[in-house]
Amino acid sequence: MQKTLNNKAWFMVLPVLFIVALNAIVPLMTVVNYSVQDTFGNNLFFFEGTRWFSEVLASERFHDSLLRQFFFTFTILVIEVPLGVGIALTMPRRGFWSSVCLVLMALPLLIPWNVVGAMWNIYALPDIGLLGYGLNWLGIPFDYTQQPVSAWFTVILMDVWHWTSLVVLLAYAGLRSIDDNYYRAAQIDGASRWAVFRYIQLPKMKHVLTIAILLRFMDSFMIYTEPFVLTGGGPGNATTVLSIDLVKAALGEFNLGVAAAMSIIYFLMTLLVCWLFYTLITQGEKK
Amino acid sequence: MAQITLDKLAHSYLPNPKGEADFALKEIDHVWEDGGAYALLGPSGCGKTTLLNIISGLLVPSRGSILFDQDDITHLAPEQRNIAQVFQFPVVYDTMTVAENLAFPLANRHVAKDEIAKRVAEALEMLDLAGKANRKAQNLTADEKQKISLGRGLVRYDVNAILFDEPLTVIDPHMKWQLRTKLKELHRRFGHTMIYVTHDQTEALTFADKVVVMYEGEVVQIGTPEELFDQPAHTFVGYFIGSPGMNVLSCQVAGNKLRLGAREVELGCSYPQLDGRTEVGIRPEFVRLAPAGQGLPITITRVEDIGRFKIVRALLEGQRFDAVLPEGREVPEGASALVDPARINIYQDSHLVRVQAQGGN
What we know:
Chain A is an all-alpha fold. Chain A is built from twelve helices and two strands; from the N terminus they run αββααααααααααα.
């Protein structure tokens, strides 16, 4: 078949390019600008080259918050993905109750980030919060404003509460797309419950789970509002993840150069991990 | 392998069926021989899938029971019935290789490793998949996937029956023929009891020793392809099987005289008094066209030349009447139709009147 080629069609992309330039590329370039310059106010800038980058990369403070960031992201992924899949597996496949479950599951996703933070802030307070008071009443010393372990526990629990639903909904969509005949065939082949999960459900959920993990990775790697409202990065620096640290550097200490360099490193890291993950997952299929 | 007995089987999807009309499957009572190849043939919604699901164990019938040899298996789950099934859309385990797919049902049944390897190798060879044993199953073509589905049944030597649910639906036309031939060959070699659901008469007639024709939840005829063609037990069988289908015209019968409107035809035998709706069934293949005056006068409305023969669409006493004209013969002017009396079937309320049996229908 002869295809009609008309390179003028590329002009159709221009409006999108324009919008993307305005909302992404231009702001990003501002950050790039800051990251290689220094200023003492009065709109006077001096070129500094890679100084801020080497400073950030060498700073212990950055290493620590990066480590906390990875710990947080890794922990919530390890909890939320299996938990979400597990919940999706137990949800009814059709009928009235499946709708009820879906609505209940979607509820936490509808609540704004800062409200979630505020909710858990109060809920976990050791003196008046149901969770905090309850745990202390059970004899478990719990005070997220004083103990790093309690703070981490609360931050992770809050994220699991808020975002597991997303994994559930995506996994459930994947499960729903499996034709009944797969289950029938497996039944006839004498497959165990585990084999059905391993050889039918998991492979069929692979694509949606890839999306779920990517989304959860990106979101959790950039998380700011919820831990900021809940603990403010404390006690001390115990729950200061990258984004909180970044805001402290940029707006608290007004270290624009350092903050900009940090932003760019942060951005490249997110991009790299997403790319790695996506390639790994899609590579396996091409064989 | 087993003989399948359907004992007064009926099924309704409603909890409290009132009348006949509530039954998706009306009562059937049949014995299907061990090692037979059966096709369940009928249009959509005729109950053939319901019957298949009852045999495979996905549905428990509302009434009656089903036996494999002497064992009543009406209430057994699919995995306890020891059957295999090939579905409409190919079901393969995507992440496994072809060989692993074939080994899966055996591994689940804890068959010894070397025995599994032996049987898988055998099945791969039988299905011409030996070269693809280590390929991922998900990248194969639809017909190869269907072969894998079939293979998962073949590796189990002791299956009671292999069920097919319109297995060629998603197969390319030129592969359908090959796959069907393969199926027939495997049936001859291994003698599994095979039940094949389809709405395609060609598939049914070429695959099966016995075709079970279903219509509106009822089994209207079980017979060899020949019987279905020569003596359709029901007018539905007459026009569902054959292309073009049988001519069915309303008529009156008295003794050995057939009256069609103003015309009278001599029949080969004498019929008893018939009550209810009387119809005559004549296969277009058994109609000879002759110049006007020699037979029943017909008005030709259209001639369709389909290469191998011509289909002549006509009206006989105001009723639709088709005839098949062999290749090379011209349509005569002002035609009339001659019919072999031995090939005329008489139907009372849609059911064939068999005179030899005297009074049976």
